[in-house]
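# nightly structure sweep
# worker-07 picked up a monomer target from the shared queue
# config: single-sequence mode, recycle default, output format = structure tokens
# input follows
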Amino acid sequence: MDERVILLVEDNPDDAALTIRAFERNRIKNKVILAEDGLEALDYIFRKGKFKERNINEEPALILLDLKLPKLDGFEVLKAIRENEFTKYLPVVILTSSKEEQDIIKGYKNGANSYIRKPVDFEKFFEAVQTLGLYWLILNEPPNLSKKL
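# output follows
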């Protein structure tokens, strides 16, 4: 059975730790892979660099993508995902502190499945992660990409 991996693309160590803690607190047991910049995220997704030997069955079931990233920003990562035939259907949720309306519009325009602002309040953040995990990892029915479209 394939591992339902969560790819967390987050450069802030505190936000990454908080997100992982929220998954644990909400009993979301999926393996979380942390990418600390946009290039590392694409390396994981496309099995390059230090991830060239990663298990092909560890495709991300969900990508949580921050926008403000070093090396390659979240919009560029999203664009690369959507332009590739093999990754264009991966669920990508923008999880960011940006409240800019232009970022929301640009995120959806570039193919984000959802846009969530990181709540400042810890309890609200834990609730948001619980809902996110329930929807994307349990309720959502992803396409079977191993079959020809």
